[in-house]
Amino acid sequence: MSLRPDQKFDYRHVGYGFLAACALAVLAFLGLLIGAFLDVRQFAFSYLFAFVFFFTISLGALFWVVVHHAVDAEWSVGMRRQLENIACLFSALAVLFIPLVFVAPVLWAWMDSANAGNAVLQEKAAYLNRPFFWGRTLVYFAVFIGSAYLLRAYSVAQDASGSARCTVYNRRVAFASIVPVVLCVTFAAVDWLMSLDWHWFSTMWGVYLFAGAALSSLCVLVLVVTALRSVGYFQGVITEEHYHILGKLLLAFTIFWAYIGFSQYMLIWYANIPEETSYFILRNTGSWNVLSILLVVGHFIVPFLLLLPSFGKRRPGFLCGVAWWILAMHLLDVYLMVLPELHRGGFRPSLMDLLSVVAIGAALVAAYLKALGDSAIYPVRDPRLQQSIDLQN
Amino acid sequence: MDTAGNTASPMYGVGAEFASAADLLRVAKEIRAAGYESFDVFSPFPIHGMDKAVQFRRSPLGRIVFIGGLTGFLTAMALQYIPSAVIYPLILHGKPFGFFAIPAYFPILFETTVLFSAFTAFIGLLMIIGLPRFNHPLFNWERFKGVSADGFFAVIESRDPKFAPAEAAEFLASLGGSNVTIIHED
Fold first, then answer.
1. Are A245 and A75 in contact (CB under 8 A)?
2. Minimal CA–CA distance to A243: which of A251, B64, B138?
3. Do residues B23 and B113 both lie within one domain?
């Protein structure tokens, strides 16, 4: 079955955008390479920050696809293919993780042999040791990539065959991947972010990262869908009804993020145990405190008040503005997870922070554009497509 | 023209019976198009698309609940901040106190916001829809009892600025309504 022009992405709309993204990525990586020789610590932390930011976006997209299949959702069928495309960026992310392998001891201080005598570290050595750490990292990527690719493969196969069997297979894949994916998210958050300071621990950490991931991936979905609509796709498939639902979910996950973030903060604040409070004491002194307060206001209060009335949720333009804002705030959120560990004295922006975001972002945009034309723009023969189109809320 | 209820008391509205759900949907659109604001339709089951047909204006309840929630938030803020920062500063654990102990206030802030919102929503809804009441004028109309089985009714209420009994009755009859009745209160 051949696709109609409105179902297949035409690279005409990108123009030289794909090449520009590739060139930008190459240039930014060259800049990072120079930076890495000048200041390897700054490079390591900046790169981890940018990597985690984009990693969470892909992760959230995978979560939404899995949940979509697990609960037999109807409303999101029209935009599911774009979520699958974002989730499939994990293979690109796995490649982009490689630079971190070279600077690992600089980044994760527990790998440094200078700290081997530390008593706390010796207690945690059963978990924090190199072979186990890299083995876990491989498992994370295997689970994420496997799950994302299987879900997308069945979905694409359905475009050709129209068989409802693919939906059933996808449901099985989704249920099979819920537990591994959630475990991998939690442990990835612990390994890559929490172990930056091996003294500190928080049992909410994985959930906190996940909350930001689910929210930021929704923002990216809103932006992608709006961009595709603006060049004439999704006519009659995605309407303002879908935007209304996305707006409601954005509000819900904004509240969820604040809830999780505050739960973590308040328990630590109340218990007042030194090995737990170190994280927040560092982020609540001096210039980091200004950014932390900005995070609370900008990541929760502003989007909350903007999304509370129904006024904006049905307007694509308004929702896109909110999505950009939340993405910027999520960037700040990840920044505050990673960078204070390097600059304990206070906020010190570096050109490499920006270069890392540009490098990884441009590489992923190129990978995304490449995937966009590989299949139909929405699941054209999904059995639930009509219900998605007829959505009313 | 039939009448129902006590003809000495004020008039509630004019009602008519229709044959089917599809009819009622058409009638709702017609009544709306004729410029009536206060009217209602009644059926034994929800009719798909009726919300769009009658186009009732948005409920003000959401805004009222927001104000209620804000009241709860500010109440909790005042009740925690004033005692623990102004009247009797609680200095313990070597933690910051007063305004900077705000994380400790949050559970209560959240709870009272929810509590006041819930109360506002519940009481506000009852006030807006006029419950509780002992009897609704429509129940004076004998035929209206069929609404829970097989009756489809439309009623134009007398509080509508455009309302004139004879005109409204004629209008309902012209839409195909049977048993057009003027309904009075008790």
1. yes
2. A251
3. no
> How many separate domains does chain B show?
2
DSSP string for B127-176: HHHT-S-S--GGGGSGGGGGGGTT-EEEEEETTSTT--HHHHHHHHHHTT
DSSP A339: G
Interface size, chain A vs chain B, as Cβ–Cβ contacts under 8 Å: 16
Residue ranges with strand state E in chain B: 2-4, 11-18, 39-42, 152-157, 178-184
Instruction: Find the domain containing A178 and state its range.
Output: 11-383
Closest CA to A329 of A360, A359, A306: A306
Residues B21, B153 contacting (CB under 8 angstroms): no
Contact A242, A79 (CB under 8 A): yes
Domain assignment of residue B45, given as a range: 2-58+135-184
Q: Calculate how close chain A gets to B103, using CA atoms only, in Å.
A: 6
Residue A208 Cα to chain centre, angstroms: 12
User: How near does any CA of chain B get to the CA of A266, in Å?
Assistant: 6
Separation of first and last alpha carbons in chain A: 33
Same domain, B52 and B71: no
Task: Tell me B11's DSSP state.
Answer: E
Residues from B contacting A (CB-CB < 8 Å) are 62, 66, 93, 95, 103-104, 106-107
Nearest-Cα distance to chain B for A207, in Å, is 20
Residue of A nearest to B101 (CA): A269
Q: For chain B, report the end-to-end CA distance as a whole number of angstroms.
A: 19
pLDDT tens for residues B20-51? 889 899 999 989 888 888 888 999 999 888 88
Asked if A270's CB is within 8 angstroms of B106's CB, the reply is no
Place of tokens 């007829």: A390
| pLDDT the model gives residue A393 | 78
Mean pLDDT of successive 10-residue stretches along chain A, which has 393 residues: 78 84 94 93 94 96 95 91 93 94 90 84 89 95 95 92 90 94 95 91 93 95 93 88 93 95 91 88 90 94 92 90 96 94 89 94 93 88 89 82
A371 vs A83: CA distance, rounded Å: 12
pLDDT above 80 (res B98): no
Query: How far does Cα A96 stand from its chain's mean position?
Result: 14
Residue B158's CATH number: 3.30.70
Q: Is the dihedral of CA A238, A216, A379, A11 positive or negative?
A: positive
Q: Any idea which residue has 């922070």 for tokens?
A: A353
Q: What is the 3-state composition of chain B as percent helix, strand, coil, each rounded to the nearest 5? A: 55, 15, 30
- The rounded percent of chain B whose pLDDT value lies above 90 is 30
- pTM for this entry: 0.89
d(CA A341, CA A322): 30
* Whole-angstrom distance, CA of residue A199 vs CA of residue A280: 13
Of B66, B95, B106, the CB nearest to A266: B106
Of A266, A308, A309, the CB nearest to B103: A266
Q: What pLDDT, on the 0 to 100 scale, is given for residue A187? A: 95
| Same domain for B112 and B65 | yes
